[in-house]
Amino acid sequence: MVLIYIDQADQEIKKATYxxxxxxxxxxxxxxxxxxxxxxxxxxxxxxxxxxxxxTKVHQVNNATLNHFDARMNSTVIAAAAKSxxxxxxxxxxxxxxxAIAPAVAVKLSAGIVxxxxxLPKTDAGFVVTKTVFSGxxxxxxxIDTPIKVISINQNSFGITSNDGVxxxxxxAIEVPSSTISITSVxxxxxxVPLTEATLVVSGGRGLKGPENWGILLDLAKALGASTxxxxxxxxxxxxxxxEHVGQTGLQIAPNLYIAIGISGAIQHxxxxxxxxxxxxxxxxxxxxxxxxxxxxxxxxxxxxxxALTAAILKSKGGA
Amino acid sequence: MKILVCISKxxxxxxxxxxxxxxxKFDENGVQWIINPYDEWYxxxxxxELKEKDSNVAIHLVTVGGADTEPIIRKxxxxxxxxxxxxxxxxxxxxxxxxxxxxxxxxxxxxxxFTGKETIDYNSASVGSMLCALLDQNFISxxxxxxxxGNAITVTRxxxxxxxxxxxxxxxIVSCQKGMAEQRIPNMRGIMAARTKPLKVIEATITNxxxxxxxxxxxxxxxxxxxxxxxxxxxxxxxxKEEAKVI
Lengths: 320, 247
Ligand SMILES: Cc1cc2nc3c(=O)[nH]c(=O)nc-3n(C[C@H](O)[C@H](O)[C@H](O)COP(=O)(O)OP(=O)(O)OC[C@H]3O[C@@H](n4cnc5c(N)ncnc54)[C@H](O)[C@@H]3O)c2cc1C
Known about the structure:
The complex is a heterodimer.
Chain A: E1 2-6, E2 8-9, E3 12-13, H1 15-31, E4 35-40, E5 57-61, H2 71-85, E6 89-93, H3 96-108, E7 112-117, E8 128-133, E9 138-144, E10 149-153, E11 168-171, E12 181-188, E13 200-204, H4 215-224, E14 227-230, H5 232-236, E15 257-261, H6 267-273, E16 278-283, E17 296-299, H7 302-317
Parallel strand pairs in A: 1-4, 1-6, 4-5, 5-11, 6-10, 7-10, 13-14, 13-15, 15-16, 16-17
Antiparallel strand pairs in A: 2-3, 8-9
Helix pairs in contact in A: 2-3, 4-7
Chain B: E1 2-6, E2 9-11, E3 19-20, E4 25-26, E5 33-35, H1 37-53, E6 58-64, H2 70-79, E7 83-88, H3 94-108, E8 112-116, H4 127-135, E9 138-149, E10 152-159, E11 162-169, E12 172-176, H5 188-194, E13 199-203, E14 211-217, E15 226-227, H6 233-243
Parallel strand pairs in B: 1-6, 1-8, 6-7, 7-13, 8-12, 9-12
Antiparallel strand pairs in B: 2-5, 3-4, 9-10, 10-11
């Protein structure tokens, strides 16, 4: 059985979970087995509807302590659940919580693990999982040599597939150790899609000259419904908050659309964004290295091009 | 207070990524090696900052790798580690690395273990979490801020779309990222001192790898950029809608 971990925050299922379930269901089909999901704690979402993404059952460890994330506690409970359910593959999203617990679960299950997978495993001979390495500059195909396997999948690398299907909910009695971590405050930026989950991203570099010029970028992001990102010097200079920094030493993202404005395209920047499906580069220097990694390019002054692009998007949305 | 900082050797961020032996091995020819940036800039420098506040802090460094990791270990000692341990095991399997470090950690009785958020070569982000299971200690990942008060720590970590602050007790494992500390460069005094700081080599004991790399591949080259006239943004919108189908 393929078991997929349901990641939640504030009792809401995270979007990355739907992709992990879609992936786990496709893998289960490939292996001729069933896909089931595991929830720790309680959520407001309708769990039966997870059947849409391909799981037949949702096992719930119904204990409110588990609504707070604690890597040691969560990994202990997940490993115990996977053992009692007889899971042979356990799937996580490679998001912040997935990174914190999937390797610990693998240790507890004596399972080999591949983190950051970007495709379904090849299972015709052995069990080989492809993942991104060198921060997106290459791929490695890694064989897992243990009977039980753990995989965490890169966000936006597989996609969400849905059908009609209804999952059965079962209560799983697993002993929950007491948590030794207490959360004292949570500080969330309201109303913004987290960058790693965003499908559309507008990003700015030093070419925008200063924080006072970010308005044109924010207007474009608003017109598109996109999240915003930036290059490292921009966050280092505090023009933008650190959590917007993408690249080899920042976030690695793979949105459907990445629009780079006034970013030169240094190798360390590209490493964080080159898995984006479509890249648009706006830069006044036709020799900027970013154009080599782009699908669409506009050679021009951002201060003219960006407002014109925003206007064109608004016009197309208005149906004109 | 004893802090163990896990140090990994990675290719420089500008290194040419290429493969040899039928795409089964990373081509190390001409590659410059650095301390993994997350380990250096955030984990190690945070430990140094804590030592500057409290002289009772001892900073031990540990790396799992061959003799070619010694230059980067010396650099880490120059920045401010007190002593270092190298476990002579050449592996790409995080589980092997984590088990070697766990053995050192058990022996050393550390209050805090710092790792980087991930390495920039294999991007596994696994060692801290594996240590959590192997040592049965608290683990806080993706930390951007940490304060110690006696036997307790307050840590702020990144969560999707924000930050979360929590408290826990020592011993604990913390994976560090941007925000934890400010990057430094070693000074001459540090470099001189590093030469005589202890660097102990321990032979490998762990051999049970659970994974093996079969092949590397480079991403397919982009087919070439399509340039759009800056005065025709309607055309760009059309292409994004009809050709790329992303908006
Ligand atoms: C170890 C290491 C790790 C690093 N990690 C990262 C990382 O994770 N992420 C990252 O981003 N960087 C990283 N860097 C830094 C990286 O090397 C580059 O320095 C950085 O990405 C450059 O940022 P930029 O493109 O915004 O600025 P610049 O390189 O200064 O480029 C600005 C661009 O704006 C263009 N421009 C100027 N004016 C206009 C205008 N009016 N209209 C349109 N275009 C204009 C210019 O032509 C230029 O191409 C790292 C570096 C090192 C050494």
